[in-house]
Design goal:
The protein has 109 residues and is mostly helical. The chain is 56% helix and 0% strand. The protein has 2 domains: 31 residues, no CATH class; 71 residues. The radius of gyration is 18 Å and the shape is elongated.
Length: 109
């Protein structure tokens, strides 16, 4: 499995077998910045870990359940934080590409 941040993302040009008219992921105009790709990779890692914790919750003892629920709460918090960062990165990208005014982008990250 390729662990590069860009491994699961599609970029310029349609993929073989894609109907670019009906599938947004096949769009020839898609562009993901390196910052966005890194944040997406982090979000995928959080989701995988949350899935694993949820699986463990199904068979956890009452003592272990509280620890797993606390970890799940932390992962939810991490998800919200990284998702907000991804949104800001997308806004910055749109400003740099000239699609929105510079003052509309959050440059704090």
């Amino acid at each position: 499995m390729d662990d590069s941040p860009l491994a699961n993302l599609r970029f310029h040009g349609a993929q073989p077998g894609c109907d670019a008219e009906s599938e947004a992921s096949c769009s020839a105009g898609a562009y993901v910045s390196n910052e966005e790709a890194s944040l997406i990779k982090t979000l995928l890692q959080i989701r995988r870990e949350a899935d694993a914790v949820r699986s463990q919750l199904e068979t956890a003892s009452p003592e272990g359940r509280a620890e797993l629920e606390a970890r799940l709460d932390q992962l939810r918090s991490d998800w919200k934080r990284m998702s907000a960062r991804r949104d800001r990165a997308g806004t910055r990208k749109m400003a740099m590409l000239g699609h929105i005014p510079w003052h509309e982008a959050d440059w704090s990250d």
